[in-house]
Amino acid sequence: MRHALFKPVLKKIKRIVEETPDTRSFYFDKDGWAGHTPGQFAELWVPGVGEIPISIASPSKSDELVFTVKKVGTVSSALFEKKVSDTIGLRGPFGHGFPLQEFAEKNLILIGGGIGLPPLMSVILEALGKNKIRLFYGARTPADIVYKPLLNELKDKIDIYLTVDVGDESWDGEVGVVTNLLKPELVHPYNSVAFVCGPGIMMYYTVKRLLELGFREENIYLSLEHHMKCAVGKCGHCRIGPYYVCVDGPVFPYSKLREVEEKFAGTVF
Amino acid sequence: MKKLTAQDFEKLFEIWKNEGYEIYGPKRAPYGGDFFFNPVETFSECDFDGFVNTLKPPKDFFFPQEATTLKLYREKLESEEVSKKKVIFGIRPCDLEGLLILDKFYLGNIPDPYYKARRENTLLVTFSCFDPLPTCFCNEAGAGPVAKSGFDIQVNDLGNGIYLAEHGSKAGKDYLSSFPDAEDELIEKLRQRIGETLKKFTPRPWAEKHLYNFKVSKDSKIWRELGKFCLKCGGCNYLCPTCSCFNTFDLQFEDHIEQRREWDSCLLEGYHRMAGSNPKPDAASRMQFRFECKLSPEINKPYGRISCTGCGRCIQTCIGDAHMESLLILMDREEGL
Ligand SMILES: Cc1cc2nc3c(=O)[nH]c(=O)nc-3n(C[C@H](O)[C@H](O)[C@H](O)COP(=O)(O)OP(=O)(O)OC[C@H]3O[C@@H](n4cnc5c(N)ncnc54)[C@H](O)[C@@H]3O)c2cc1C
Ligand code: SF4
Ligand code: SF4
Ligand code: SF4
Ligand code: FES
Q1: If you write DSSP's letter for every residue of B77-143 in order, what string do you get?
Q2: Which pairing describes strands A174-175 and A159-164: parallel, antiparallel, or unpaired?
Q3: Residue of A6, A51, A80 for testing the chain B interface, max B β-carbons within 10 Å
Q4: Tag placement on chain A: N or C end, fewer CB within 10 Å?
């Protein structure tokens, strides 16, 4: 069991699950792979094409490694060409995940947008039966909701609130942005921490809303997405102010990010 | 401090070659072109006449412009950690300081095996500077014109075929041990030369004031001003002795696949671009990103100094004048407003 920081381990794809028309989960056997904490990520290498950072969607105790990938560009499209038994390279696990062990007694408020659900799913499966969990998840359309069967299974064990930007005839749930779901009677800061992962704009408004609801900055954790190449703090691409998202993150408490957002170059999320 | 002649250096070159070192010294490109560190066999082969510094900084040896990191043959994956014994002869103090910063960056935290392998088994021989260019400001950036430490051997060329050399490491001490100590009057002459050299630097009151006092706000018009003139060539980053950023890419060959690293530049849009968004879509925020990397005390904390060594390469290279000197002057003006 060692961390593959620079040289990937070659692994055969064990199973592929079609989550949505443009999103697939890739399953691998875990042997030879170091343990991870939810929120950590790996670099998936499609040899001959390139590497992409992808969150580990499975919990640490599982003997499978799961990655849920949305097809958006060069490497993700090349990954979608791969079949069961094809070999790809994996490096990791990288970075700092969600500090679950610090929050053994707390309620977990999980807020996800789009392809931001995988790291939160790792949290859910890890914390199930330990923490009280409430999940708020927004997708673009009903067809874009990932992990539908799993969410169905989980709905008796945790509180799940879903919304879509655009509904269809089959959808009788909420329509609108995920922040609409964050009502004071459902999301109160007492004894709670919030874990957030989704597109930048969604995280921006979610943080605003959580602060309005009385959450303290240090109780809001965000998983950031930044351009990445090396995942070991060397290529420079993911730097925000004095932090490297790949090594110091990708999960940060908002209290750390506010100053960076105000003082250093670019937008943080 | 030891006294050496050109013949003594020829002896040292022979010793190094016998020990299996490859020696790289300054060579001028044909037709009076730029200087590069190229393989040399003898001391006399080095071009010290008119040499101030090389076009590419010596980081190229340890963090090459382009290098293979992985090779995949069918199911067999090899990591390309290249280590060769080499002497880099004629490094300037600003670039030595740059290497020491890169060492802290690449060997610190999660050490990089590719840099580490190339960096091992290297002897660094610096030459102090007595004829700075108008673009040099190592004096202000605390890196020159004479290096304080970090070299194996530092050479001071006193002219007339006389060189004073000091060691900065055990290896350097051993190589110099057989040479005679320099007489007191030569050491006094060196002291005078250094004093005269300091007077040769172009005066830069703005450098002293702002290099160590970086606090340009995010919405300052300085970033927009510099951004307007950047033509996005990447040259200032590629040639900076402390720029460490790289891109990775794959190449397919008939019988194998390679993953490579190449120098990257944070002033290019694609450096920051993500699928569907870009946190730094404008040249102004990329300018801030570049210069905060060089001068921000928070970012540079691990090095205990700023990441500009005053080598002046960005000033020489930038066709839009969006370089370190412009930043310092604009900072001075903004303060005066
Ligand atoms: C910590 C982390 C976890 C992530 N987890 C997931 C996940 O679980 N599922 C998922 O579908 N996506 C995830 N992403 C986003 C995913 O990495 C990008 O969608 C992917 O890199 C796009 O690559 P591409 O080659 O297909 O696209 P292109 O647009 O062709 O990108 C080219 C290159 O740019 C870089 N790049 C582009 N977009 C991103 C991006 N958003 N983040 C980082 N680098 C980028 C990559 O190096 C990529 O190879 C995560 C990103 C980060 C930083
Ligand atoms: S050298 Fe000048 S023009 Fe080229 S990237 Fe740097 S600032 Fe821009
Ligand atoms: S971020 Fe920019 S300035 Fe800093 S090392 Fe990388 S390329 Fe150079
Ligand atoms: S910022 Fe310019 S002057 Fe400073 S070290 Fe880099 S290239 Fe040299
Ligand atoms: S991904 Fe290379 S420094 Fe973070």
Answers
A1: EEE------EEEEEE-HHHHHHHHHHHHHHHSSS--HHHHHHHTTEEEEEE--SS--TT--TTTTTS
A2: parallel
A3: A6
A4: N
Model confidence pLDDT, tens digit, residues B290-323: 999 999 999 999 999 999 999 999 999 999 999 9
CB of A236 closer than 6 A to ligand 5? yes
What single DSSP character describes residue A120? H
Distance of CA A71 to the CA centre of its chain: 16
Ligand 2 pocket member B229 (CB < 6 A) = no
* Ligand 2 binding pocket includes B230 (Cβ within 6 Å): yes
Residue type, B203: P
Structure tokens at A30: 């875990």
Mutation pick from A46, A77, A232, A235 vs chain B, by most beta carbons of B within 10 Å, is A235
pLDDT tens per residue across span A82-113:
999 999 999 999 999 999 999 988 999 999 99
pLDDT digits 0-9 by tens, A106-118 = 999 999 999 999 9
pLDDT band at A2 (very low <50, low <70, confident <90, very high): low
Measured between alpha carbons, how far is B308 from B324 in angstroms, rounded to an integer? Answer: 9
Which of the four CATH numbers 3.30.379.10, 3.40.1400.10, 2.60.120.10, 3.40.50.80 does domain A100-223 have? Answer: 3.40.50.80
The CA angle B159-B162-B165, to the nearest 5 degrees, is: 115
Interchain contact, B286 vs A265, CB within 8 Å: yes
- What b-and-e string marks burial along B189-201, b requiring 16 or more CB atoms within 10 Å of the CB? bbeebeeebeeeb
pLDDT tens, position by position, A166-181: 999 989 999 999 999 9
**B199-251 pLDDT, tens per residue?**
999 999 999 889 999 989 999 999 999 999 999 999 999 999 999 999 999 99
Tens of pLDDT, residues B250-278? 999 999 999 999 999 999 999 999 988 99
CA distance B311 to B202: 13
Contact A51 B264 (CB under 8 A): no
Residue A242's closest CA among A264, A262, A224, A220?
Answer: A264
Residue A23 clears pLDDT 80, i.e. is over it: yes
pLDDT reported for residue B337: 45
Instruction: Give the domain ranges of chain B.
Output: 2-203, 207-336
Domain regions of chain A by residue span:
9-94, 100-223
Instruction: Write down the CATH superfamily of domain A9-94.
Output: Translation factors (2.40.30.10)
The token pair at B227 is 């951004």
Distance CA A151, CA B22 (A): 63
Residue B175, phi then psi, degrees to nearest 5 = -65, -30
Residues of chain A whose beta carbon is less than 8 angstroms from a beta carbon of chain B are 5-8, 10, 45, 47-51, 72-73, 76, 87, 89, 199-200, 225-227, 229-230, 232-237, 239, 241-242, 247, 262-268
Q: Which residues is B257 bridged to in the sheet?
A: B72, B252
The pTM (predicted TM-score) of the whole model is: 0.96
